[in-house]
Structure formats: structure tokens, C-alpha cells
Amino acid sequence: MIPKIPLIILFSLSIAGLCGPLTVNAGIITGSNLLPLFEHPLIYHPSSNSIPGSPPYVPSDIRKGYDFNPLYSRGINGTGTRIAIIDAFGNPTMSKDLSSFNSQTGLPAAALNIYYPDGVPATRDSGWAVETALDVEWAHAIAPAATIDLVVAYDSGLGHVYDAISYVATHLTNETSLSMSFGLSESQYPKTGGLTISSTHQLFVTITSHGTTPFASSGDDGASTCCNVSYPASDSLVVGVGGTTLNLDSSANYLSETTWSGSGAGSSTVFAKPSWQQGLGDSKRDVSDVSYDADPNTGVLVVQGGFRYQVGGTSAGSPQWAGLAALASQAAGQRYGSMAAQLYKLSTYHDITGGSDGFFSAGPGWDYPTGMGTPDADLLVGSLTGPIVALRSSNLFQGLNVTTTGTLQVNTSSLTMSGTATVQATNTTTGQLVYTRTYTIAGVRLQNMSTTETGRFLLNIPVNPYPLSTDITITIQGTQTSVQADVTREVNISGGGTVNIEDVGIVLADFNAVEGSPGYNPQADLGAVGTVNVTDLSIVDLYYNSPVFN
Q1: Closest by alpha carbon to 14, among 152, 157, 183, 153?
Q2: How many CA atoms lie within 13 A of 528 on its CB side?
Q3: In this structure, are residues 52 and 251 in contact, taking their beta carbons and an 8 Å threshold?
Q4: How crowded is the C-beta side of 529, counted as CA atoms within 13 Å?
Q5: Residue 123 pLDDT more than 90?
Q6: Which one of 360, 384, 408 terminates a domain?
Q7: CA geometry: angle at 255 spanning 72 and 40, to 5°?
Q8: Do residue 417 and residue 280 come from a single domain?
Q9: Same domain for 92 and 147?
Q10: Cα–Cα distance, 541 to 184 (Å, whole number)
Q11: In sequence order, which residues have a C-beta less than 8 Å from that of residue 478 and are 6 or more positions away?
């Protein structure tokens, strides 16, 4: 029926598990109850958000339940990232609604840009307005410092939604992630012309080549057969997000989750089995990849048009996973592009083992309706980016007590470390603070040593009578990390910013010189023992090519 007029096929939203039938009128497809009116108690009720752990969940509930708070405490909040969101029709009061949502939930102001690839929509749609508010408000709730780029399709027709995706591909090339809370059955796509699944897939090839990670809701109708899945969630370059019922206690601690009955799932009839899904499901690309709270009974607070709604559906999961990807990107200092292969390697999920979507049931490990599971955000970001290493040392040297504290984020993908460290030097006799500085550590390379990775760097300490340095070695073996921090006289004697051959030459030239002798160079006596010896040579050798931070 629908493929006869494919250019104006309407997308059915994944918002609350209630999608009405499509009807044809005078050659134009329109939606009859395409979106719910949010009057059903499972979808909307004007309850207070002052009770922790009770729906409608507010950002503080979800942040605690899914373990986001440790990330925020370390400053991982989406700074420097961008989240693209595609919606149809838009929300005419979006900026005002977002401000109200922030005020009610204690969130900071957001950086929001709105783009209209085919012009400002001439008509409004109340359901899409709530959908748009949901997407923007909850992407911001998860990544509060990220810039949000909202791309509004002229309507929910296939052609205009395609144009919106194309706009992201061609104009928004610096996005960290992309959220698409909509979908259309693969079988309803045209087989020829410019709006096929193949054509849209090529847009995702471009989008992921820019480093952008696309997410899409898997749908809200559950499953009645094996192979009626929603696109774009079924695209092998897109992370398909299924749905759960999330239960929190009165302090918003995580209690349990089961499959939400409306979670879309199944096997693609278009895409072959990707390598990262081998051994799971059947022989084709399977949906879902991951999941998130979606049950309207455990829905989230949304502010739209001055009203408060409790909203559920897999629509809620896509923007929040996009926000989580932004946090991971900030922590790692990189964008991921197509992320599914990395996500399937992780075990940092709440494994959903109970419940059904009507055709598929959840079980241990990956399953159709919930994928790998829902995130433990802190552990997931740590697994994607690498461990957090704490620096804490205290050394007595040259009449000073030198303490070094800080944290380093290890990126196991790029084999680099970054973070901050603070050094304080106190006179051991008088107790006077003689030096303090916080250093920004960036780009320290890890060397792969077969079973371990090792990184070294130095922090210069310009004190009298001779400048010192804290010499730091980080060793990673599997999930275990160790830190060795020593204080010596400044190893980078030449001051070149990297321990180099000139520093080695200075120590060699003064080798065996004794304090008080004509040839003695106190700066070459790194250990300050009165003799330039093999220990000093071993120090300069150990830190050869290591970066120095001032």
C-alpha cells in the first residue's frame, strides 16, 4: 500500500508505544493518532518531580540510577562536544521549554542551535513538539556542557527526513553523536529512487567518517515476527537502542530492570551480519544493540509548551545514549564514529535477563529486545577510554617535602594519557610553602611493552638552590595500574622540554665527579648524593624522550 507513494511516507515515532494507523486521503498520507496526545496515565501525568526514584524520572534520578555522577565529579560533562538531533516539525517553544526544564531540574543553561534544511515548517504537530522537547532536554541532561544542534525536518515525510540526515552529513561535520528518535519498517522503504535504504546508508557512511556516532530508537511496537525491524536502527553503522522498565529505590539507586513490552527488535532483511555480532542472533544484522529506560510507566519528565509530561518509549533512550557518547568522547579526547564494534566488546552493562517484547525474550548476555543491556555509565566510559589513574606521592628531597596529587585519564585506543597534577613543596624545617603549581598533562604516550603499557613524564619544580622534578612512571597491566613518583634534581637539565641526548651528554661529561671537585656539576648529580654516578645515568636513560611539563 504505502510503497506506491514512497516520497511522502511518514515516519512513525518511537515515543510511547502508541502509533495509530496511516490513512490515505486525496493522495496524501496523513497520520491518524500518529503520536499519542499524552493524556493516557501511562504516558503523562502532572505529578511532582520532588520524590527521588519515582516517575517521572528527573535527571538526578537517571544520573544516579545509571551511574553518571562519578563522571560529572571528574569534570566529564560533554565539554567540547556536539550532539546532533533530528526531529520533524520541531517545537516552536523549544528554547523556552529547555530553559524551564533546566530551572525545574537544576541543570545549567544549554547551548542550542536550530537548523531548518528545507525551511521552517508551515504546520505544527503537538506530538512531534513533545518528541523534540524530549530529545533536546534529555541529551542536555546527560551531557550538560555539550552543544546541541537540532535539525528540524519540514515534516515527517520520508523526503524531508532524508534531507535532514543529509544536512548532518554535509553541513554538521564536527558532531560527536547523532540522535534519531524515529523509524520506519524496512519493508516500507522504496526499492528504487533516491530515498532507498541504500541511499540513506551512504549518508551514514559519510556521517561516521566524520567521527559522528549515530543512535536510533528501535521502535515501540514490540515484535510479532522475526524480521520486521525499524530503520535507521537496523543500519549496521547505527547503534539501535531498545527499551526497558527501570526500577529505582527511594534514593534513586538502581534496583532492577526488565524488558519493556514495546521494545522493537528483530532481524534485518537488508543488512548482512556485521563482524561484531557474529555468534549472536541469526545470520543477519540484529536489533537491538543496547537499551535504556523506555516504559511509559517509568518515563521521564519533559517540559513542552509550559506543560509537564511523563514520557516513555525508546525515543527516550536514543538522545541519552548520544549524550553518553559525548561524555566518552570528552574523556577520551576523540570521536568514535561507528561505535557498535567497541560497545560489543564491553561488559559494563546492566544485563537484562527478564521480560519479553511479545516475540523475543531477554536472557543472559545479548538478546534481541535489550541488546547488550543498559549502561553503567561510569564503568562504560572507563572501559571505552581506559582507566583513571590517581597520583598521590610524598617525597623528602633537598630539605623539601614534595607532594604530588592528581588524576590521569588513560586512553587505551590512542595509547595516551591526559589529566592534571598538583605539586606542592614545603620547607621541612619551617613548614613554609615554597612552591605550588597545577600542571595540565596532555599527550603523554604509552609504550606497548608486550603485556604492559608504560608512560613516563616529568613535572619541573623551579626551586632553590637547584630546580627539581617529579619523575612519574605509569604502568598498566590488564585492569591493574601502578604509579611510581620520585623526586630528583631536574632531569631535563638542558631545558629543551623533552629529556634528550643533550641531557645524557651532560651527565656523561660529569660522570664520577665528586662534590667539591673542579669538574663537579651539581645539576648532573640528579640524586643529590654528592657524586655523579650510574644512578644518575640510569635516571636520564629511563626518562629519555619523556615530555616535561612546566
Answers
A1: 183
A2: 16
A3: yes
A4: 10
A5: yes
A6: 384
A7: 95
A8: no
A9: yes
A10: 62
A11: none
Same domain for 376 and 393, yes or no, is no
Residues 251 and 392 in one domain: no
All cell numbers assigned to 505: 651528554
Among candidate residues 400, 85, 311, 338, the one with its CA nearest the CA of residue 207: 338
Q: Is 81 helix (H, G, I), strand (E, B) or coil?
A: coil
Q: Which domain holds residue 399?
A: 386-549
Q: Return the CATH number at 42.
A: 3.40.50.200
Q: Can you tell me which residue has the cell 535504504? A: 197
Domain limit, last residue, from 384, 417, 449: 384
- The C-alpha atoms of residue 169 and residue 377 are separated, in whole angstroms, by 28
How far apart are alpha carbons 416 and 459 in whole angstroms?
Answer: 17
Task: Please write the tens of the pLDDT for every residue from 57-89.
Answer: 999 999 999 999 999 998 999 999 999 999 999
Report the 10 Å Cβ neighbour count for 475.
Answer: 17
Q: What is the pLDDT of residues 183-206, one digit of tens each?
A: 999 999 999 999 999 999 999 999
**Structural domain count of the chain:** 2
Q: Is 96 exposed, middle or buried (0-12, 13-18, 19+ CB in 10 A)?
A: middle
Same structural domain for residues 380 and 394?
A: no
Sole residue written with cell 537496523: 234
